[in-house]
Each structure stands twice: as C-alpha cells, then as structure tokens.
Amino acid sequence: HINAKPGDFAKTVLMPGDPLRSKFIAENFLENPVLVNNVRGVQGYTGTYKGTKVSVMASGMGMPSIGIYSYELYNVFGVENIIRIGSTGSINMNVKIRDIVFGMGASTNSAFANQYELPGTFAPIADYKLLSTCANTCKTLNLKPHIGNVFTSDSFYGERQEITKKWLEMGVLATEMEAAA
Known about the structure:
By secondary structure, the chain is of the alpha/beta class. Helix content is 25%, strand content 26%. The strands form two sheets. Strands 2-3-4-1-5 form a five-stranded mixed sheet, with helices on one face. The protein has a four-stranded mixed sheet with strand order 6-9-8-7. Strand 2 and strand 3 form a beta hairpin. The longest helix is centred in the middle third of the chain and has 13 residues. The relative contact order is 0.18.
C-alpha cells in the first residue's frame, strides 16, 4: 500500500486522514518536501521542519485504513512515532471549534482490536513522552490544549444521542475515526 524506498520516511510521521491535508502540511510547513508515496492518492511527503526530518502521510478514513498504513510504516519503513492529526467532533461543551485536543487514550466501538485476541476491550493510550512533549510545546506557545480520552467510532453519522451522552459522562472529549487503531 506504500510504494517508497527504505529511508524515505522520517522516524516521526504526522498522519492526517485527508491526502490534501497531507499535501497542504508538506507544502506549507516542511522545508524541501519530497513526495515519497502516492499509491491510491494517499500522499506521503518527507522534508525537514526546523532542521529535523519529518514525514507527513495521509491515512485515509477509518481504522482499517490507518491500520494498514501504520503497520507498514512501523514494520517496513522503520517509523518510530505516528502522530494522528486532523479534525474531531467535540462532545464536551468545553472543547470549542479550533481547540487543540490531545488524545491520551482512545476508547472505541470497533472490533478492530479483536485481531490481537485480547480478552476484554483494549483502549490504546498515547506514548507519555511524546504526549508530554506536545503538551509542553503548547505551554511554551501559550496554547491551552484539552488532554484526555477520545472516542474512535466506526460510524460517522447515525450515532444515538444517548450513547454519545454516556461517553461524555465517562469524560470523553471528542469523537473521531482513526486514533484507536
């Protein structure tokens, strides 16, 4: 699913869902971005940001899509960090449009984790060092992110309001479609 050469990707990859967002980030924030993948229009770029090699590649929508790309990035291309970036739908009244949300954990209604044959429900959590680096960076930029649990859903429309309310009561900040994978 990725047609690149070894070394084409940086150790850290930013992953928005939208291929056009990947292109926008590469063209507006990376120095000397190079297109290293364009299979199925899923654009992946590598460049530098303030002298540090960074990649940005789209994940597509949903857990199966990001699951494929993240597996290949980690297991074939030696990537060490994937930071899922993009939009999310707030379910907490304190999270406003354009606020920053860091998902410390990702609850889900998906059966995606069943492939690992774990009894119970596995809720992936962020790497603490990476999460704290992001939070501290926000502090130095005088930004106030929301940090907590997000809800990764297989469905975009049609969720019943009472279910969303239950996730909110458990402290979930927002809902999206990729982070749990």
